[in-house]
Structure formats: C-alpha cells, structure tokens
Please model this.
Amino acid sequence: MLVLINTLVIAATDRLAVPFTACYRISNMMKKLPIQKAFTLLEPGPVVLVTTADGGKQNILTLSWTMVMDFTPRFAFLTGSWNHSYKALTKTGECVIAIPTVDLAKKTVQIGACSGAETDKFKKFKLTPLKASKVSAPLIKECYANIECRIVDHIKKHNIFVLDGLTAWIDSNRAEKRFFHAVGDGHFIADGKIINHRRIMLSKLPKGV
Amino acid sequence: MLVLINTLVIAATDRLAVPFTACYRISNMMKKLPIQKAFTLLEPGPVVLVTTADGGKQNILTLSWTMVMDFTPRFAFLTGSWNHSYKALTKTGECVIAIPTVDLAKKTVQIGACSGAETDKFKKFKLTPLKASKVSAPLIKECYANIECRIVDHIKKHNIFVLDGLTAWIDSNRAEKRFFHAVGDGHFIADGKIINHRRIMLSKLPKGV
Model:
C-alpha cells in the first residue's frame, strides 16, 4: 500500500533513521520481480541511475558502465572517486540501481551532468525517493525498475564494483517500458522492436528465467 | 583493397601463419575508427561476437556480458572455462570483439547455442574471417564493427577479463547499422530511435569523441 504522509513517514516497519525529503513506502505499484530474473533488467545494457544514502544525504549517479555477471543477480559497474557518489558507495556498501525509461532520458542525462556535491538531485529533478526494503539507499518511484544492491567486492585497480542484487522491484503499471542506451558521445538509443529467439537458447537458460 | 585468392591468402603484410578457411585482407569496406571512439560501439550494450584463434583453430563466442571502462578503449567482459573459447583467450591473450547488426540476430543466437568444440562456427554459419592487423583472432566480415583486443588482466575470482582495444574497424557502407541487445531470457531488443543529448553532456566528453 502506498502511503505518503506530509514529508516524512516513519512506518512501523522502518529500519532506518534516514529522513527522506518525501518518503513513500513501497507501493502496490511496485511489484517484486523474482531476484533470479533481475539480470534481465540490466543485461540489455540500459542507462541506469544509481542511488546512495550517506547518512541523511541521498544522491543519484547516472551510469552506463554496467555488466551482468552470468545468469545470476550479481552485477558489476565502474565508477571512481571522481564521482560524488563514490564516498557513499564505499562507506555504506549499498546502493539501488534504478532503471529509467525513455521518457526520462533528458532528465537522466541532466542528472549525470551535475554533481551531488552541490545539488540535491531528488529535489532538483523532481524525483521521489521510496524507502527500500533492505538497503539505506532509496528507490526512485519514477523509474520502471529498481534493484536493491549490496557491494560484495571493490576491485580498486580497475574501479570495478561487484554487487549482489537483493530485491528487485518493477512498476508494471507504467505505460512506457522502453529503456534507453548511451552511445557515449552524447547520443542515446531507445529500445526498438523485440525479437523472440527463446526457443534457440532455451537449453542455456536457468530454470525459472 | 579487398583481395580474395582461392581459400588462402599470404599477403605481403602477413604476420601470421594461421591458415584462414577463407581469408580476406581488411578491405576498403572496413574503415578504421579512431581507437578513442571504440567505446561508443560497446557502450550501448549490444550483443557481441568474440573471435579467437588457437593456432589454426578459430572460434566465435556469443556474449552479452560486457562493460565499457570509462571513456577509454578499455573494456571488460565475463566468461569462464564453461566456454570453449576460454582456453584460446587465456592461451593467446587476444581476441576480436565483433558487433553484429539486427539482421544477424538469429545467427548470433545460434552461434551461442552450439560449441566450438564440435563446430567450425565460421563454416557452419557462413561467416567470413578477415585477417586482423594486430591480433591472431579474425575479424568477422559480416559484422558492422570489429575491435581488435589484447587481454591486459584476468580477474579469475570473478571471471572478468579486462581488455585494451588496439584497432577498431567499421563497415560504414552497410545499410543496416542497428545493433541488438539481449534481455537474457531468450528475447532480444533491436536499436530504436536515436536521441541527441550531446549538448547537455558536452563538458563530460573527452576531446575528439
């Protein structure tokens, strides 16, 4: 059930003392996706928004340097101390990987073009933090998918973080479900037509995927 | 200049003693892409074909678990000993990352559904190996892009290979230039419309990109 009470909710289930600027509980709109299927959200290679919460301070990082690790809920991404979120990532060991759809493309790029050092990105970009179930970092209500993650390794030599997906949420009521991909030169590519070759690779797929 | 002589060409520039089943020299059709732009081929997260050459034996691996590492020609991908190409990758330290377009989607999935242990994939799937300029692994003529790569690290704990792109080639004459992305459950997504947000992120882009 979605509940919004003024600007601060302390729910019975609260396990965090983080004051959210506007705090929802995870709603009926957000359905759990079985965690063994969470890799299917990241495998296409969409641009993602990574949220962190360092004490009371939430931030959002726009990221395209991600990788699925096998048919598992384990993922990798690359970032370093040049990003404001780096400190929160290394300090808390937690984040949420939120996946925006194509209608949020411009906002997503703008989020990546400013720094959390000077900007409250949730406020500036009118995004709504939702309290996650297992991590201190917030979900982003406006995104199609959110994956709560715990960092399990940090390969400093290569600036690679390895993360385990803990819980995945999708907003299945959302009309726009197309992700978008960064070219890396300022252009982006929206998802196009879907091709079904499931029959050919069925023997490769783990049970339940 | 593209030259095909029967089934074996020993060009003046040959630096390899690898007999190609059908050997072209890199043609005028394949243009060099400045290596600092090679990441723009992989950053969207397309399905790729990784070629290897272990002595005279060439192979192709279908892969979707790749990651761009910063605005550089350094990439990561994940594979392990469960793949026939693993031995050639670790032995030679070289490969080519070829990027197929959406017209090759079915073939690409089929390539991933069989093993190089029993199959000559170039022959079975009627693909043409092109001699690379810096590595023993072949380019794939039918692909839009090919990046010659050298493995610079192998993080065995996570099955991650780190690679440096050495030379990148694109077939700019190709009419079909749309890549495609794996969902991971047997569905694939073709590239859709292109969105230009270059102005917003211009300050983030390295010179020349």
